[in-house]
Queue: 4 jobs
Job 1
Amino acid sequence: QHKIQESEHPAGGLEELRRKFEVMWWGGVRVDPEMQQRKLIHSVRPKYPDVARHAGIQGAVRLRAIIAKDGNVQDVKVISGPYLLGQAAAEAVRQWRYEPTLMDDKPVSVVTTVTVE
């Protein structure tokens, strides 16, 4: 399991306050997308919508994902990408599973950005 390390400098109290604010505002601690990607243990490919296939629509969809303490995806919102692909990407990401993220040896909810090609 991956741990987020507490900073060792005097501003550690500010760092804890920032993380608490992130949890209240975003629904979890913000985690870098590359760091979160390394924790992915199960993924599902999106189903390419027929209407998008026939129209030749393709491209990347960016989503904001809230990952619960247990590693299950709790919520997904489309940030950008082709409209016709957004729903399929969100449905797939809702089925993904991650290793739990630990902070001070306790699992925490995280918020990250996921890109689906």
Job 2
Amino acid sequence: MTPLIVAIWVAGAVQLAIAAANLEVARKLDYRANLARLTPIVAQVFLAHAVYIVLVMIWFSSICLVFARELASGDPLARFLTGGLAAF
């Protein structure tokens, strides 16, 4: 196990923690009450974006946690994916 694989696992765990923290953020910022004041379309767009971001974070974390060895391999596809993950 290389330090790079451990770093990828840590990145996956951090991404999963960020996704989980979004649930608490929704409660702390009282999304329900604040969204009730918006027009329905704006509230729906906001919720769609919030859910999308959480799902992407879960997806990225699962890639890091399950495929860390492949991401650390240095293959062109792995380098492309890790570059995209880092840019996000």
Job 3
Amino acid sequence: LHRFSEPRVLFYGDREGIQQDVFGKIAMAANGGIYIPDKNGNILVGPIGKQTIFGSHPTKDPDQDVLGVSRDKSVWIRDSKFVLYSIRDGVYHNADFPRNESPTCFLETARGEIWIGTRAGALYRKTATSWDEVQPQIPLAKAGVTMMAEDGFGTIYVGTRNGLARWKDGAWQTWTKENGLPSNIITAMRLGTAGVAWIGTASGIVRVDGDKLIVVDKSRGLPDEAITALTLDKQGNLWVGSHSGIFRLCKEALDQLAQAKPARLTADLLNAKDGLRYPEGRPFVGSWLGQDGSIWMAMLRGLARISPDHIATNVLVPETKVQGVLIDGQPAASLQNLVLPASASRVEFQFTALSLLRPERNRFRFRLVGFDQQWIDGGTQRSAVYTGLKGGEYRFEVIGTNNDRVESLAPAAITFTKTKAFLETPIFTLLLLLVATCVVWLAIQLRIRSLKARHQVALAERQRIARELHDGLLQEFQGATLKLAALQLRNRDNLVGEQLDGVISGLEKSLQESRRAIQSLRGRQWDGVELYAALVECAEGLCREAKVKVVCERSFHLMEPKADIKDAFWRIARESIRNSLKHGNPAQVQLHLSSRGNELVMLIVDDGAGFHVEEVRLRTGSHFGLVGLEERMACVGGKFSIESAPGKGCRVEFRVSLFSAKPLFREREIKREAARPGVI
């Protein structure tokens, strides 16, 4: 039977004469010969199927491991009693290795030194007469050495069962899971160019470049993280053995790993269909690059040989096609002018790539224009499912690749429309806005009604207190004043009469203040009353009593504000003029009311004594009433400013927007008044 083309993987196992029960560590010589122990205590060498006995153990020990081959063609082996031998010209020579140590791996450095690693984690270097332990020791606890390698700069990497160590310039540097490794168990090692080392672990691959570590695992695209072997081919591609099989990582993708946002790696596992009868790799044994460029890897039940240069590439461009669409599990009758009902909740697109060579390795990426922001890697899956699509127009596109990543020239596409549900229509949006507006309006009305009720309660309580004061306290004061006046008439010619005259004057002033307070409690009725007329009446009344000149002015086209602004301005004007008359002793007071744009502005100016504004603001218990003026303006959303200096009078300006002023029923004012004793 003649084989016209080789499979991608040639496997050598028990059928080809390699027995599983004696397959431990093997090694490859510089000439391509493979050294394998057999169950009869021999070391075989030569091409597979044509091997000859290279040497026989003195005691025919069937359990031997080949650790390595030195440049002088000596083969270093360890037997079942952990004795280290070197075989030269077919003769076993005891290497006189320390008897208390168990050799596990071999390294010949560029300078010709022989290094042996042990199960206990020690390293020994061969001298002319003995073995010297490398000092200092590897700073890793229970670090059984699994493999060693030297790069082109003389740096030695040592893999252990408890981390990775690097020997450079006579000092150790170590890495474990605590500082970057995905696993402490080092299972494979391969040194690349420019000082880059590739380290295989039980949980992924690590790229070591100087002090920088980059972990490559399933999140980066590895098909398997349990690494058993690593080998670089002549093109710089990394061939990886794992528990699931063998795969290749191309050099271009590996070079991108050092970038800020590297692309996701892509790799296809070689399995039984590629000639790999038993895909599970054997860790800690190693892999080799033959003189002809072929790659050899130790598998659990044999040897795998790959010839990268002889692997044929499928260059046929696959044609991608959308086969069908399932709407809620039911196939669409036609893909032309496809319209989905508004009730459709699940849409499945079925597609394929017309490539019959290893079709199970065809891969796909797709996107739904109008829903996806970028292409989605679907792997080998031949369907894509979307749920929760909103009404609108969509375009589904899919691109297929064959088993060798050759991509189709153009994506297969299908355009469809999904009918909008009632909840997605403009009518529903308008109804929703209308309902929301009604709810907000109702809430505002309820709030206003509540504030009105509280305000009416506060006004009623004010009026009750005013009546009590007028009918009780003021009447008593008035009666006392009349009695004192009668007593003063009888004693007007003596000292008592003069003193009573002063007392009566004080009582009359107190009565006037009390009447003003009662009037303030009762408030004003603003129906049919102009603000300017009320301000003029207030200013002239106050200044007439104090015998101070008052000048009132207004601008043309003055807009009449709402009642709450009228009340606030009237109270503020009264308080400001009273403060001016009481503390400033002015000769003249000016009041000016005007409109500026949509603002109502009231200006009160006097030529009195003036004061330091900041000192008054900081003075606790000040009698100038600045805090009260600011609070009243804040209640209607207005602004208050004052300018004054000693000897230069005072200028106070109040302004409020006529369109954005706060309503009459001011919650803060009601709460403040409710906090006063006897006021609700």
Job 4
Amino acid sequence: MKGASEILRREIRNQRFYRLGFNHLHLLISGCYSRGEIQEDDTRFEMLLRILQRNYYEEVRLSDAISRTMKFETRLPSSSYDRTNGMSVNNNDVIWARNLLANRVFMCPVVFFEPYC
């Protein structure tokens, strides 16, 4: 495992590894595809399928309602991304669009919960 720990140290040194030192809450829905990701045939195909299915609108409605309740009940502060691999959605500081494999391969509305307590 020496190789894995060296990779982790390198990632932290390069600031590509993102970790918060405090409790926080955020919800993730599909979106925020980078230029490089769109150039990949399978990613582009899955992205187009999701656009045509119009899952995004249902994900926004669900995540908006869920986020308000979770923020009230948990009292956790929202988290944020650097806007290169995540994008804030619907003026809600808890909801972020990300290009995650599971968001793309499930052919239904998907909302990921990431509360850290």
